[in-house]
Design a protein that fits this description.
The protein is α+β, with helices and mostly antiparallel strands. It is built from four helices and seven strands; from the N terminus they run βαααββββαββ. The protein has one domain: Alpha-Beta Complex (Ribosomal Protein L22, Chain A).
Protein backbone atom coordinates (compact mmCIF):
# COMPACT_ATOMS: atom_id res chain seq x y z
CA UNK A 1 0.00 0.00 0.00
CA UNK A 2 1.44 3.36 -1.07
CA UNK A 3 1.80 6.16 1.41
CA UNK A 4 -0.38 9.12 0.63
CA UNK A 5 1.11 12.59 0.64
CA UNK A 6 -0.10 15.40 2.88
CA UNK A 7 -0.45 19.00 1.81
CA UNK A 8 -0.13 22.11 3.96
CA UNK A 9 -1.44 25.36 2.51
CA UNK A 10 -0.67 28.88 3.76
CA UNK A 11 -1.66 32.26 2.32
CA UNK A 12 -0.32 35.77 2.54
CA UNK A 13 -2.70 38.47 1.34
CA UNK A 14 -1.99 42.10 0.50
CA UNK A 15 1.80 42.06 0.69
CA UNK A 16 2.71 45.64 -0.27
CA UNK A 17 5.05 44.61 -3.03
CA UNK A 18 4.48 44.24 -6.76
CA UNK A 19 3.45 40.69 -7.78
CA UNK A 20 5.95 40.84 -10.62
CA UNK A 21 8.84 41.39 -8.19
CA UNK A 22 7.63 38.69 -5.80
CA UNK A 23 7.18 36.30 -8.72
CA UNK A 24 10.87 36.56 -9.59
CA UNK A 25 11.85 35.16 -6.20
CA UNK A 26 9.00 32.63 -6.25
CA UNK A 27 10.43 31.17 -9.48
CA UNK A 28 13.62 30.29 -7.61
CA UNK A 29 11.79 28.35 -4.90
CA UNK A 30 8.99 26.64 -6.83
CA UNK A 31 9.41 22.85 -6.99
CA UNK A 32 12.39 22.67 -4.61
CA UNK A 33 12.77 20.61 -1.46
CA UNK A 34 12.41 22.41 1.86
CA UNK A 35 16.17 22.57 2.50
CA UNK A 36 16.91 23.93 -0.99
CA UNK A 37 14.10 26.49 -0.73
CA UNK A 38 15.36 27.72 2.65
CA UNK A 39 18.88 28.09 1.28
CA UNK A 40 17.70 29.98 -1.82
CA UNK A 41 15.62 32.42 0.25
CA UNK A 42 18.38 32.94 2.81
CA UNK A 43 20.98 33.87 0.21
CA UNK A 44 18.76 35.83 -2.17
CA UNK A 45 19.31 39.58 -1.79
CA UNK A 46 15.92 40.66 -3.12
CA UNK A 47 13.44 42.27 -0.75
CA UNK A 48 10.71 39.72 -1.56
CA UNK A 49 12.83 36.85 -0.18
CA UNK A 50 12.11 37.76 3.45
CA UNK A 51 8.27 37.53 3.37
CA UNK A 52 8.49 34.36 1.27
CA UNK A 53 10.87 32.87 3.86
CA UNK A 54 8.45 33.72 6.65
CA UNK A 55 5.60 32.16 4.68
CA UNK A 56 7.67 29.01 4.15
CA UNK A 57 8.38 28.78 7.88
CA UNK A 58 4.66 29.23 8.61
CA UNK A 59 3.91 26.28 6.34
CA UNK A 60 6.57 24.20 8.11
CA UNK A 61 5.04 25.10 11.48
CA UNK A 62 1.62 24.04 10.16
CA UNK A 63 3.08 20.72 9.06
CA UNK A 64 4.60 20.17 12.50
CA UNK A 65 1.36 20.96 14.27
CA UNK A 66 -1.11 19.20 11.98
CA UNK A 67 0.73 16.19 10.59
CA UNK A 68 3.23 13.44 11.19
CA UNK A 69 5.39 14.51 8.24
CA UNK A 70 9.11 14.99 8.81
CA UNK A 71 10.83 18.08 7.42
CA UNK A 72 13.08 15.93 5.21
CA UNK A 73 10.09 14.87 3.09
CA UNK A 74 8.61 18.34 2.55
CA UNK A 75 8.85 20.06 -0.82
CA UNK A 76 7.28 23.18 -2.31
CA UNK A 77 4.50 21.66 -4.40
CA UNK A 78 2.81 24.87 -5.48
CA UNK A 79 3.66 28.55 -5.15
CA UNK A 80 1.36 31.08 -6.78
CA UNK A 81 1.71 34.84 -6.78
CA UNK A 82 -1.21 36.94 -7.93
CA UNK A 83 -2.29 40.55 -7.82
CA UNK A 84 -3.91 41.89 -4.69
CA UNK A 85 -5.58 45.20 -4.02
CA UNK A 86 -4.11 48.21 -5.85
CA UNK A 87 -3.91 51.53 -4.04
CA UNK A 88 -4.38 54.47 -6.39
CA UNK A 89 -2.51 57.65 -5.60
CA UNK A 90 -1.83 60.81 -7.57
CA UNK A 91 1.14 62.98 -8.24
CA UNK A 92 0.84 66.50 -9.49
CA UNK A 93 2.64 67.17 -12.74
CA UNK A 94 3.50 70.19 -14.86
CA UNK A 95 0.87 72.50 -16.38
CA UNK A 96 -1.86 71.49 -13.94
CA UNK A 97 -1.91 67.82 -14.87
CA UNK A 98 -2.09 64.83 -12.55
CA UNK A 99 -0.28 61.50 -12.92
CA UNK A 100 -1.56 58.26 -11.39
CA UNK A 101 0.63 56.18 -9.12
CA UNK A 102 -0.43 52.54 -8.70
CA UNK A 103 0.80 50.97 -5.48
CA UNK A 104 0.37 47.27 -6.16
CA UNK A 105 0.12 44.43 -3.67
CA UNK A 106 0.49 40.66 -4.01
CA UNK A 107 -1.44 37.65 -2.79
CA UNK A 108 0.78 34.58 -2.26
CA UNK A 109 -0.32 30.96 -1.80
CA UNK A 110 2.22 28.31 -0.78
CA UNK A 111 1.52 24.56 -0.67
CA UNK A 112 4.03 22.20 0.97
CA UNK A 113 3.69 18.50 0.20
CA UNK A 114 5.27 15.70 2.17
CA UNK A 115 4.85 11.99 2.75
CA UNK A 116 4.96 10.33 6.15
CA UNK A 117 8.17 8.33 6.29
CA UNK A 118 11.67 8.60 4.85
CA UNK A 119 13.08 11.47 2.82
CA UNK A 120 11.81 12.37 -0.65
CA UNK A 121 13.60 14.20 -3.46
CA UNK A 122 12.49 17.59 -4.70
CA UNK A 123 9.39 17.86 -6.86
CA UNK A 124 9.88 17.61 -10.63
CA UNK A 125 10.97 20.73 -12.53
CA UNK A 126 13.37 21.81 -9.79
CA UNK A 127 16.43 21.43 -12.01
CA UNK A 128 14.88 21.08 -15.46
CA UNK A 129 13.26 24.50 -15.52
CA UNK A 130 15.38 27.30 -16.95
CA UNK A 131 15.81 30.40 -14.86
CA UNK A 132 14.50 33.55 -16.47
CA UNK A 133 17.10 36.12 -17.41
CA UNK A 134 15.20 38.91 -15.67
CA UNK A 135 15.73 37.35 -12.24
CA UNK A 136 18.95 39.36 -11.97
CA UNK A 137 20.82 39.12 -8.68
CA UNK A 138 19.16 35.90 -7.53
CA UNK A 139 19.90 34.07 -10.80
CA UNK A 140 23.65 34.20 -10.20
CA UNK A 141 23.15 32.87 -6.69
CA UNK A 142 20.90 30.08 -7.97
CA UNK A 143 23.56 28.96 -10.45
CA UNK A 144 26.16 28.59 -7.68
CA UNK A 145 28.15 31.70 -8.48
CA UNK A 146 29.69 33.90 -5.83
CA UNK A 147 29.74 37.68 -5.99
CA UNK A 148 33.13 39.31 -5.59
CA UNK A 149 32.89 43.08 -5.48
CA UNK A 150 30.97 44.25 -8.54
CA UNK A 151 31.91 41.19 -10.64
CA UNK A 152 30.33 37.74 -10.62
CA UNK A 153 32.72 34.79 -10.74
CA UNK A 154 31.84 31.09 -10.91
CA UNK A 155 32.45 29.09 -7.76
CA UNK A 156 35.50 26.81 -7.92
CA UNK A 157 35.10 23.36 -6.43
Amino acid sequence: MAKESREFKVKLNSLRMSPRKVGLVADLVRGKSLAEARQQLTHCSRRAARPLGKLLEAAVAASRQNGDVSEDTLAVAQLTVGPGRTLKRRRFAAQGRVRRILKRSANITLVLRGTPGSSVEAAPNSEGKKLRRRVGRCASEAKGEVKVGAKVKPEVS
